[in-house]
Amino acid sequence: LQLHHGGSYRCEAKVSNLLAGWQTSAPVPVAVQGVPVSGVSLMAQPPGGQVAEGDRLVLGCSVAAGTGPLAFSWHREGAAAPLATGPSYELRAVRHRDGGRYHCTATNGGTAADSPPLWVTVLGERDPVAPGAP
């Protein structure tokens, strides 16, 4: 059952012993209530959000409950706009600047919920700058 299935329903039946033939019931309103989005969780590969510089990081978002078409957005602390949309977010070659606190938001058009934050730690050292280099 989906939210768009709500509306007014009636049935028709052919009654063989009546001259009228078809009989129609009175309309019955059916309201379908959506289940609010809840239990939003964030998974990371590699687990724990610790990744070596240059390696790949994949974050995934899921919900425990919620009806309707779900939409996901990705956020990093300090960034005004969402980083991406969709149930997963991938960084193909992580850099130190990618470290920080991430979360996903799930919405079904009526309600929205955030995942707990995940701290992404980028391991490894930056390339040393040679003495005298600009």
TrEMBL record:
One of its GO terms (cellular component) is plasma membrane. SMART domains: IG (SM00409), IGc2 (SM00408). GO terms for molecular function: cell adhesion molecule binding. InterPro entries: Cell_adhesion_signaling (IPR051275), Ig-like_dom (IPR007110), Ig-like_dom_sf (IPR036179), Ig-like_fold (IPR013783), Ig_sub (IPR003599), Ig_sub2 (IPR003598). PROSITE patterns: IG_LIKE. Its main location: membrane. Gene3D superfamilies: Immunoglobulins. GO terms for biological process: cell-cell adhesion. It is found in: Membrane. The keyword Glycoprotein applies. The keyword Disulfide bond applies. Residues 36-121 form the Ig-like domain. It is a single-pass type I membrane protein. This is FCRL1 protein. It comes from Ciccaba nigrolineata. The gene is Fcrl1.
